[in-house]
Amino acid sequence: MATVTESVEVSAPVTMVYNAWTRFESFPEFMVAVQSVEQIDDVTNHWVAAIGGVEREFDTRITEQVPDEVIAWASTDGKSHTGRVRFESIEIAEPDPDLAGTDAAQAQPSVGGLTSGAPVAVVPPEQMGEAEPPAPRATEGTRVHVEFTWDDETFLEKAGEALGLDDLQVRRDLHGFKNFVENSEEVRGWRGEVHGGRPQPPTSHNE
């Protein structure tokens, strides 16, 4: 079995990020090798992927799904391919625009190492101390962690190779997903749960 794991931080709330991932038909927008994904029912998806001009088709079935937390799936043959995506709500620090150029603004011309203009005040050592830096601004974000596993001798020859399941391609696709979400309007997604491959309708808490 081969395994690829990658993570990316998205500057968007976890619900928005999770909902975007549940829109499987949008995968071709950020997965280079995927041509189309058709959602057959709440847990089954039909994929069409191509690489090097060779088209592959296969089905996956969602095995676990919890809103804003996790989505896991497996190929319908039960052994050749599995995937899991975890969503974690985080805070992403942003630079404070009010501090931009502060050092330059405070700097004054000096002569011989002394600041020109007003007399220099002498501060006793006991009164000297380090000023506390301002707290960084933070925005609500999401860490997306994906893990793919596949059978080298079966799935790789069929769909794994078509999907480009290697570290570099997964990393590129994840960053494509990040850009896709950060530059899109929020969409509604399916908020039901799946346990053991059996879908459960959305609860009032998840709607």
What does it look like?
This protein has 207 residues and is α+β, with helices and mostly antiparallel strands. It is 19% helix and 39% strand. The chain contains 4 helices and 11 strands; from the N terminus they run βαβββββαβββααββ. It has helices at residues 14-22, 102-106, 155-163, 167-182; strands at 2-10, 34-39, 44-51, 54-66, 70-75, 81-94, 110-111, 114-115, 137-150, 193-195, 198-200. The longest helix is centred in the last third of the chain and has 16 residues, at 167-182.
SSE string, helix = H, strand = E? EHEEEEEHEEEHHEE
CATH superfamily of the domain at 2-93 and 137-185: START domain
What's the gyration radius in Å?
25 Å
**Overall CATH architecture of the domain at 2-93 and 137-185:** 2-Layer Sandwich
pLDDT averaged residue by residue: 79
Helix percent band: 10-25%
CATH class group of the domain at 2-93 and 137-185: Alpha Beta
Identify the overall geometry. Answer: elongated
State which percent range the strand residues make up: 35-45%
Largest sheet: 9 strands, antiparallel
Number of helices: 4
> Are there runs of 5+ residues with pLDDT below 50, and where?
109-115
> How many E strands?
11
Terminal Cα separation, in Å? Answer: 37 Å
Give the helix/strand class. alpha+beta
CATH topology of the domain at 2-93 and 137-185: Alpha-D-Glucose-1,6-Bisphosphate, Chain A, domain 4
Question: Which features characterize this protein?
Answer:
4 helices; 207 residues; Alpha-D-Glucose-1,6-Bisphosphate, Chain A, domain 4; COQ10_START; two-stranded antiparallel sheet; ORF3; single chain; alpha+beta; nine-stranded antiparallel beta sheet; START-like_dom_sf
